[in-house]
Amino acid sequence: MTATVSGSQTVLQLEGVTKRFGGFTAVDNVSFDLPAGTIGGLIGPNGAGKTTLFNTLAGMIQLDAGQVVLNRTPIHTLPPHQIFKAGLARTFQIPRPFREMTVLENVMTAPANQAGEKFWNNLLRPRKVAREEQALREQALSIIDFCDLSRVSADAAASLSGGQLKLLELARVLMSEPEIILLDEPAAGVNPSLMVTLVDKITELNRRGYTFLIIEHNMDVVMSICDPIMVMARGRLIYHGDAAGARQDPAVLDAYLGDLP
Amino acid sequence: MIGVISYLVFFLILALIFSIAVLGLNLQWGYTGLFNAGVAGFIAVGAYTMAIMTGPSREAVMGGFELPFVVGLLGAMCTAGFAALVVGLITLRLKDEYLAVATFGIAVTIQLVCLNWEYVTGGTLGLISIPNPAKPLTDGPLAQNSVFLLIVVGVGGIAFWSLERIVQSPWGRMLKAIREDADAAASLGKSPTRIRLESFVLGCMLMGLSGALYVAFIGYVSPSDFLPIVTFQIWTMLIVGGSANNRGAVLGAIIVWGVWTSSGYVISKLVPTEIQAQGGAMQAVLIGLILVLMLLCRPRGLIGERMNVSRHARI
What we know:
Structural class of chain A: alpha/beta
Largest sheet of chain B: none
Order of helices and strands of chain B: HHHHHHHHHHHH
Distance between the termini of chain B: 48 Å
Mean pLDDT of chain B: 91
CATH topology of the domain at 10-99 and 173-257 in chain A: Rossmann fold
Order of helices and strands of chain A: EEEHEEHEHHHHEHEHEEHH
Helix content of chain A: 25-40%
Helix content of chain B: over 70%
Distance between the termini of chain A: 50 Å
Number of helices of chain A: 10
Shape of chain B: globular
Oligomer: heterodimer
Strand content of chain B: under 5%
CATH architecture of the domain at 10-99 and 173-257 in chain A: 3-Layer(aba) Sandwich
Largest sheet of chain A: 6 strands, mixed
Strand content of chain A: 15-25%
Number of strands of chain B: 0
CATH class of the domain at 10-99 and 173-257 in chain A: Alpha Beta
Number of strands of chain A: 10
């Protein structure tokens, strides 16, 4: 469960990413680089275009202009499942578990190219599948343990609490050892003690070399763990820098407070 | 006594033949969430393939290849699978109810083709004298049916065992992930289009197999065997038995076919002769009633689905 740290190389590079819905520009010419081993924070008022940007990065929405490069490979033309295989994994703002499956199997679903995912291998090469499954199961159980879900690993995902579902989504993406993990509001709707756990997990994973890009509204979380911070408003990137700078930047203050009389 | 046993054998043959189609639908709906409302069409494709491949030659109708029974079964699975591939490539991008409407339309189209393409299907008369594989091996109707039952149990057993193998696995896990949330599955590297297509084609191959066995048993095939009511029956069998559980699929087939045939008997005895003609409609109403009651009282069926998919991942 360790990712390779590649110095201060850029993992993710956005160049002029633009997404329009009819006449409305949800993401407007957004460019930034995210170095390996960082926790990037993407913040901004509601409707700023953060989740739309995530959806375009993950391939769920086609972008209209610009490009997304993951470790020097352009990924913006790929479908979602291939973007995941290229190393970009995401979680959802509202968790999307496989409800009628156990927690263990939710996690075991994630790795790509399992031998048993070709149906004929289950008839023709059962031993190979069994060996792989055994190894995956061990790996999954250790990740589940890391995410504090051991107690519920045999339960249906449908029975988990909101906070546990956030942890389950994290566990799922960790299985594939991605180059970068996009977390969409990991702290939203999570009780305070579980939120501390979640933040601890993220910083611990970051120490092990994982790169994150996080959308979050909880400013305590953002200011304490994220660097750099990117601020979006009305689809545009209005700030890119450290946390202290964001607090004083007039454009950022205006975006958050400007609509007040 | 012999009469009861004969009837029981006859009943089981048909119930088990249906159960193979239910297993196919279970793969599609139970595991993958594909709303195939065209089951009858794929059964028809398998049935006609069997009739054409193994039947005797006849005037003005294609066929007469008189190929062996096993070749007919394999051929039926291949043509049903090919039909499913073509249909799947066109329709599987559709979601839920749209897929249902599309497949329903395709099944009706297939039935109409069977009715009208006389050179291939024999038209309204259908194709008769399809050889029964049990006939050369035995004499007497009971012995013949018993041997045929063994054949069906054998073929069905292989289908059941293979299915259990391939669904209690990482492949089955992918199917279920797609059923639960296709976008989330795609975000974890699974290709919904490919997986849906695999499940759809394999499921339809089983429906084709079911149709082929039916024809070999009954000895003839006609377009009236593949009306939408058949799709409806297969669906009821699956819902009653339990979606996403292969044992449930087989159990549902036996129970619903039992209710269907015994209600036919009861109606023929109790209902005054002048309204006997409506008996068939009453059977359909009864099946609909069972379906509704089941969905209200026990939506997961008699044997529900298990949370655990892969047999390697039991805790």
